[in-house]
């Protein structure tokens, strides 16, 4: 089916279909607990046993997270039709540091680009006159303040945590980018990057119709949910195992507030792990339920999402090892600060 | 003969776009040569910030994400 017929169908059937979809979504969402209890009751498993607890967690969280994921990705797919990397670059070119860092961090959340685009994007920004530190604010915020993570935290852990995560993630991107900008590390870019002076591409600008924006939302659901659903399920399974089998005292003693070293340990353990935000939230939920401290868990989550080895290997094409080391160090210190701060704030 | 360049480091999306261009050309009955441009310096030289990008006869027509099939037909028949 062509996109045009898709768009027409969406606009013609829009009110009825949208209402139906929202109603179906709400009904499904309201039945999560009965559904999970019903599934577990069908299984030859004692409900109060460890396995029963783990299964109940799994069958509650799996549909819940997938429903929420679909909603958040759909909404974000629509929002992103208002932004493009080229427009973002034009907005940021020649910005002063400070304001520029803040804008870059905010735009990092809403600008669509796939991770294999990181290098062209980096070169495109720097060569068009976006300051290096501002570019880094963008590159840190983009994976760190992930809309999927934000939506899921909001629903699974609560709005206070979600909003704090948003605020601290943005702050970290702004401050880390600003610090990298102050250090004046342009010389540590790979030399060929600085020789490129790209003009702004003369792209034909079209305004999508409302129908096209909705189709973009559906496309985002098909593409993103289609790509991440199994890592989400894996994450929920890990969360369910933690929920059912890990003894509370053990986790509270190694990830609790009293163990100050748990924050740096969480960051170090998190870096080599590569998971997307959607997969890690159920683990976060289960760890918190077992008495792990919020700051420690968030530090773990942030280092898994923001400091990933594959991304560093991609960025190695344009950044020297020294500059990557600075990037990791600055972001790592920021994550530590966020972790300790959260452990202080949320008793 | 239309000259189409697909700009991108070579991820799955870029491969998809190459195939989409070929399909669109077959559908429209237009002769095209499709070249993949994977060199970062060359990609940046076109002034785009998001890939995959599409260049038809030296002119940028698209950047970022998958293009729509009917747009592709329009670009290569224009």
UniProtKB/TrEMBL annotation, chain B:
Domain Thioredoxin-like fold as annotated: residue spans: 3-76
Entry-linked InterPro entries: Thioredoxin-like_fold, THIRX-like_proc
PANTHER family membership: THIOREDOXIN
Protein name: Thioredoxin family protein
Organism lineage string: Bacteria, Pseudomonadati, Pseudomonadota, Alphaproteobacteria, Acetobacterales
